[in-house]
Amino acid sequence: MNGNPSGVSSTRVVFCGDRDVSALLLELMAAQGGKIVGLGLNSPPGPAAERIKAAAGVDADMVFYGRSIGSTVAVRKLGAEAPDLGVCCGFAPILTPEVLAVPRWGWVNVHRSYLPYNRGLDPLQWAVVEGTPAGVTVHVMTDRVDAGDILGQAEMPVYPTDNMDRLESRADELAFEVFQAAWPALRDGHLEGKPQDEDFATHHSLADCNALRHLDRDASMKVGRLLDILRCYSGASYSGVHFATGLLRSPFTVHTDIRVAGERAGEAESFATEAAETNLSLKDCLPPEAGSPEDGSGNAPRVDDQR
Q1: Of 203, 237, 269, which marks where a domain is finished?
Q2: Which of 122, 127, 233, 265 is close enough to 238 for a disulfide, judged by CB 3.0 to 4.6 Å?
Q3: Are strands 252-254 and 241-244 parallel, antiparallel or unpaired?
Q4: How do residues 47-87 score in pLDDT, each as one tens digit?
């Protein structure tokens, strides 16, 4: 579809998302022929929300939080603004069919995965633990989550020393580059892309992510996999991995901090390869349970009780 020829009029955009990179995308669109007419933020909004609102420049009554963007009032207000295009980047709620139908050209999403791999939640985490390609994709949004045609994408490496802070930072840098390359066509209404290869598609739900993050203290697994799971939830925005145990009345959380020990990448790769070949019980990684034979103090482990 060909909408606004460059230089003729502004492309009217509804934007949803509040990651750090969202403000940069808004500033890019505003500087290159886009006009933001509505804004969706997560509920509660993220740390960058105020900067994003400033970059969007919309009135307060055109800012919607979380699922409220799907309300009858929000859909009516957005429709009255006659948007051409919708853009998502890090917006948690799934958009309703009514919201998807508002922009005349449709919606695009900036997803932190190398689609068709890792549709759904926590795509970077799953790239780490499953060894699938990591990257960023700009794709058309449809009623199937992250399954629309690809408009632009780029792959990025995952290093053995990465935690989520580092991965997310690199992914957001890449997201800006991929969106910047795609924007001229999007601005002019060209949303024709490449269909995804369903033979390689993977998808992860909230239940999948909860199962990954909640570990059985008495289970055994290779050290390499345990390290991958720990680093998936290591970083300033993550609260750690949750463990279940029989003697505590509720699960507890272990916080991790993945740091680079050696300067040479070869050293890190060698360590990761050796660790992946070793079996280790999770019991060996955690403090002994209070009152167990291994615990001579009678004190409970120094962990965060989640009650």
Answers
A1: 203
A2: 233
A3: antiparallel
A4: 899 999 999 999 999 999 999 999 999 999 999 999 999 99
Residues 125 and 178 in one domain: yes
Q: What is the CATH number of the domain that holds 56?
A: 3.40.50.170
Q: From the CB of residue 243, how many other CB atoms can be counted at a distance below 10 Å?
A: 21
CB 51 within 8 A of CB 44: no
How many Cα atoms occupy the beta-carbon half-sphere of 255 within 13 Å?
10
Mean pLDDT of 146-168: 93
How many angstroms separate the CA atoms of 183 and 97, rounded? 24
Question: What would the pLDDT profile of 34-51 be if each residue is shown by its tens digit?
Answer: 999 999 999 999 889 999
Tokens 């020990």 -> residue: 261
Q: Which domain holds residue 196?
A: 11-203
Beta bridge partners of 12: 35
Tell me whether residue 2 is in a domain: no
Angle at 112 between CA 129 and CA 236, to 5 degrees: 70
pTM, two decimals, is: 0.79
Over residues 205-251, the pLDDT tens digits come to 999 998 898 888 778 888 888 889 888 888 777 767 766 655 544 55
Show which of 177, 203, 229 is a domain's final residue: 203
Do residues 67 and 51 lie in contact, with contact meaning Cβ atoms separated by under 8 Å?
A: no
The domain total for the chain is: 2
Instruction: Kindly report the number of other CB atoms within 10 A of residue 39's CB atom.
Output: 27
Beta strand 134-140 with 107-111 is: antiparallel
